[in-house]
Amino acid sequence: MIEVLGRDEVLQIHQAALEVLKGVGAKVQHEEALDMFRRAGAEIDEQQQVAHIPSQLVEFALNHAPRFMTLCGRNPRYDLKSSTGAVHFSSGHGATFVMDFDTGERRPATKKDLENMVRLQDALENVDFIYPQIYPQDVPAQALDRHISHALLCNTEKPVVATAYDGKAAQDLLKMGRAIAGSEEALRLRPMFTVSLGSSVRSSLNGRE
């Protein structure tokens, strides 16, 4: 295993990160999240929507985060158990164009392309979990995240990194998960996806908004 940085260098980066989080702060454009930071002890700039996070809060969160976790797939044989030094492989992420297999021409990516790519990665033994390698351009922009998650969950038994651009999309993703798992309790016991959250990429990936 390659060690790029020594322990002292890692600690320097950690200390610098603590200083940035407290001094510069983190932009949080979500009132409920800002309120959670406030109640936890962060100083909030309401006008700029910035949370200045004290080092003790960061250390508390790090000390209470699980050291190991399991990424579940729809099929337990593909579960990934994290451990120190473990290496797992996945695909790339977010291509909006593809080279057509039949014509050799470059064209906008479709949902069918994503589905085919997920099925290919499902069959490859050296792919451990699956990102949405393709962002379809033939689906409504406002529902892009739902279509991505649908294509992932319906075409592989491996763990996936699904997509949600806002709270409503996250709720819809949970509905998909409950439908597949059979119940909310079953989904809690074996969550078959992690989630990439964020809205800033949507307009840049799909120009039809």
List keywords for this structure.
41% helix, three-stranded antiparallel beta sheet, two-stranded antiparallel sheet, 209 residues, 9 strands
Distance between the termini: 45 Å
The overall pLDDT average reads 88
Structural class of the secondary structure composition?
Answer: alpha+beta
Number of strands: 9
**Helical residues, percent:** 40-55%
Query: Radius of gyration, Cα only, in angstroms?
Result: 20 Å
Pick out the low-confidence regions.
Answer: 199-209
**Biggest sheet record:** 3 strands, antiparallel
Q: Tell me, what's the shape?
A: globular
Order of helices and strands, N to C?
HEHEEHEEEEHHEHHEH
Give me the number of helical elements.
8
Strand content: 5-15%
Strand order of the largest sheet: 1-3-2
